[in-house]
Amino acid sequence: MDVLEQIARKPVSEVTPKPPEVENWRYASGDIAQLWLDCADTGTNVISEAVLRELDTLLDQIKGEQPRALVIRSAKAGGFAAGADIDGFADLRGDNAVQMLEQGHAVLDKLAALPFTTISVVHGNTLGGGLELALACDHRIGLEGVKTGFPEIQLGLHPGLGGTFRLTRLIDPVAAMQMMLTGGSAHDRKARKLGIVDALVPERHVEAAICAAAAGKLDQESGGLRASAMRTRAARSLAATRMRSESEKKAPNQHYPAPYALINLWEDHGGDPKEMQKAEIASFASLLDSATAQNLIRVFFLRRKLKSDGKGDDGIDHVHVIGAGAMGAEIAAWSAMQGKRVTLEDVALEPLGKAVKRAAAIYDKKHLSGVDARDALDRMMPDPDGLGRARADLIIEAAPEKQDIKEKIYASLADVMKPGAILASNTSSLRLTDLIAATPDAGRFAGLHFFNPVSQIPLIEVVSHDQAETRTLDRLAAFAASIDRLPARVTDYPGFVVNRILGPYLMEAMVMLEEGKKKEEIDRAALAFGMPMGPVALADQVGLDICLEVARSLRKNLDRPMAETPDWLEDMVNEGRTGRKSGRGIYDYDKGEDPPNLPDGDPPENIIDRLILPMCDAGVECLRKGVVKDVDALDAAVIFGTGWAPFRGGPMHYAKVRRNVARRLEALASEHGDRFAPDAGWSSFG
Predict the structure, then answer these.
(1) Residue 301 domain flag
(2) What domain count does the chain have?
(3) What is the CATH number of the domain that holds 30?
(4) What is the distance between the alpha carbons of residues 431 and 411, in angstroms, rounded to a whole number?
(5) pLDDT tens-place string over residues 538-564
(6) 467 and 532 both lie in a single domain
(7) Peptide bond into 453 cis (omega under 30)
(8) 185 and 285: one domain?
């Protein structure tokens, strides 16, 4: 039994009594006192106002007892602490935010000033506020597998409980700044190399490491020569200039103020921890008031809501994928990586071989260890004879977007699938209603729409139809969550939600190209709005053949006018120029032609409105038709399915903030045609 299990099972009589108001900590007194963070009613520790208030009380008690050392660690098996309690500060503003931050800093300062050795033992996720708590201790002992980092930048913030000045004083300040600016993490060996943890040990050696730290025998790394040099304003200014330049490439100051606030904070005050602490509090409170932070915090909650839709046991151990093309191969590789047993079927052997190579490349890109990559590959079995059909709990059909091909596959499963197994289609352009008749059991058939590339895009649309059983949909949502994807529950509708909203964005870009606008101009305008990729580049990424199929489907099945697809696009697809996957699309990748990755400094407003506002309009249509349950679910699906400018909070949130979208659509309709005519749902939206 490891130490975590021991403390979890310790009788109350063996734990030192604590004040009655303390609910989130366990305390064991002694020569080496031990504090265990154990947040009540949750499986994950977070650093909340209550956690810090209780710690303040306990520190007074422990200081009076004068132990030789104090050890702080977590009673949760999953990690030390996942970060700050975002629920607790999301609505804070102005003076209230400053006051709460000052109180939190006072508690960690009290911990840092204790007259005896303090040691934090960290394991698993040690992030944000959890890492700031650990940094306030004299020593940090990391257990193998620990993950440290400051992800606050992803919320439009920077560390706010002392992380900015404690990390830049502890390790190489440039490396510390890079961690905070990117939100990147340092896993166990990297954390040790950087000096974030003073020792990295397996669980069985943790007590010996604690004793060594208490006896002053644990060596600590210093920040090195660069740390000393960076205490001068001139040196920091040079480094800060480079940091601003690098940040601008990925997070323009216009949209993401947090990186630049952090750089200014360090440049101005990095030589004086006390002044940097004061400035950190003021800067964090100011950022918390910004629209960017509030929208990114909203996105955090949207992600959490999607995850909650996938709760429960999926009952799916074995997945059988039919079709080893790009999508099928990625689905199989990702499912195997997440622990599922997978069989992959195709009518030809060559795609199966390519699928195995693709899987190996994905595992390498995801930094799987040799053992983990081998185990994942062992779980993914090429199955040219389709033997897995009869044993699978879930069959995912990822065949070409041809109704007759899919119907033949479904008919061949009629007497093969085991009782209770689910059949799911990865179709992106066909209506499930048109496929139901060919399925063995309509109740256990639904859509499971992955996005390309599966290993990078976190969303899966779980698509219902009138005859689908609730249990089937619940299991598919739980399956999505079990393979670390976000399930978006939608109904059967042309393009479902994501492609219905993305379609006009891509199609309008094709119309603009037909008008003679340059592809780079169109893509740079979208980047300036905040999209992660311009529509022309995205069309190449998705595949021009797939874009063409989605465009045809939308035009055929929607009762609203859509942009016509230029003839040259169909010609390109017929010639095999399908985009990045073929080496040639609208951009010629074989000749080294890459899409722009920097925005236009002064983009034409008309281009942005023509690209973006039809997406908002399609969203209103989806809400009116009940394709998705509410605004939050729609915004979440589009953000996580397309990367839609997250700092704007999603297309519907953007429309609410902008307010004049319907009127602007009317103006565009008079100028460019009925495809811009606002949906009837605008009258009740707002």
Answers:
(1) no
(2) 3
(3) 3.90.226.10
(4) 17
(5) 999 989 998 998 898 899 899 899 998
(6) no
(7) yes
(8) yes
Task: Specify the pLDDT at position 9.
Answer: 42
**Residues that are catalytic:** 428, 449, 461, 499
Strands in 168-278 per DSSP E: 185-187, 199-201
Mean pLDDT of 321-327: 95
- Between CA 502 and CA 513, with CA 508 as vertex, the angle to 5 degrees is 130
Contact 54, 17 (CB under 8 A): no
Q: For residue range 80-126, list pLDDT tens digits in order.
A: 999 999 998 878 888 899 999 999 999 999 999 999 999 999 999 99
What residues make up the domain containing 26? 3-289
368 — pLDDT class (breaks 50, 70, 90): confident
pLDDT tens for 155-178 read 999 999 999 999 999 999 999 999
C-alpha dist (Å) from residue 214 to 88, 120, 217, 497, 634: 35, 11, 8, 58, 53
- Do residues 318 and 393 make contact, with C-beta atoms less than 8 angstroms apart? yes
SS3 71: strand
Spatial neighbors of 366 by CB under 8 A, at least 6 apart, are 337, 455
Residue at 553: amino acid letter: S
The model's pLDDT over 583-608, given as tens digits with 9 standing for 90+, comes to 999 999 999 999 998 887 788 899 99
Q: Residues in the chain, how many?
A: 686
**H helices of 309-456, where?**
326-337, 349-365, 370-379, 403-412
d(CA 580, CA 583) in angstroms, rounded, equals 5
157 contacts 287 by C-beta, under 8 angstroms: yes
Q: Which of 465, 449, 536 is nearest to 499 (CA)?
A: 449
- 330 falls within a domain: yes
Alpha carbons within 13 angstroms on the beta-carbon side of residue 180 total 31
pTM: 0.89
CA neighbor of 162 nearest in space, from 288, 50, 287, 277:
277
